[in-house]
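Late entry, evening session. Most of the bench is empty. Finally got around to the prediction I had been postponing all week. Sequence below, unchanged from the version circulated by S.P.
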Amino acid sequence: MLLFAAMCIIWGIPYLMIRVAVRELAPVTMVFLRTGLAAALLVPLAARRGELRVLLGRWRPLLAYTAVEVALPWLLLGHAETRLTSSLTGLLIAAVPLVVALIVTLSGERTRLGSRRWFGLLVGIGGVGAIVGLDVGQIDRVALGELALVAVCYAVGPLILARLLGGLPALGIVAASLALSAIFYAPLAAANWPSAFPSAHVVESVVGLAVVCSAAAFLIFFALIREVGPVRAMVFTYVNPAVAAALGVTLLNERLTLGMVIGFALVLAGCVLATGGTPEVVAEP
């Protein structure tokens, strides 16, 4: 129960930290620091366990997984949160299981969705509309598009993991993905390095993203899977967006509308109906 509660909180707070970090750091710099620090913690552990060498034969799918699960979505999240609140971002990302259900269906893996799942998709889409609000003109459409791409990335990543990286050590995949992302973003981060040292709140947010929300989170997540199994372990993803919204409202004085509350409830109901009651993906923000 303690591990479950920890994951509910740990993967609910990144949206708040990202929002704080991108106030003074370019999104690409924030992603580099987050992945670099987390990789520095996890790569030695994975290497000591011999979980990195076995990945060499699967480097192509590993690169694809890194791109869609870490490198691209984390950058898009940073860009989006320069224009959207952390609470709104967290609530919209709750729709990722809906995207998973739709992608799996369109890929032909399920020849058709039953009426229950189709109804769930429609309910979930209605919930997303309620979260955004009827007057979309007041919300940055580019940022909404970035979040849509994030949702697609988080839906495709687990499919690559299951189909092309199955059987490989999870810690090794995570550590390698973080290290590869940090290497890729290093020159871009250097070109966008801040002229002044960031404030204490920004430093705390970056360290928290790397140490707590990335390195420690994955270790706790793996321990949770060992204790309760992969299906039950993923139920906490339904709680994370609510934590994100609560933190944004209480700590950053963000506005929480009735439409956002109702929409979130509809998205959760749609996810349960469309995915059969358990999330098919873990989206680590």
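Two things to note before I forget:
Residues 132 and 260 are 7 Å apart (CA to CA).
The radius of gyration is 18 Å.
Will write this up properly tomorrow.
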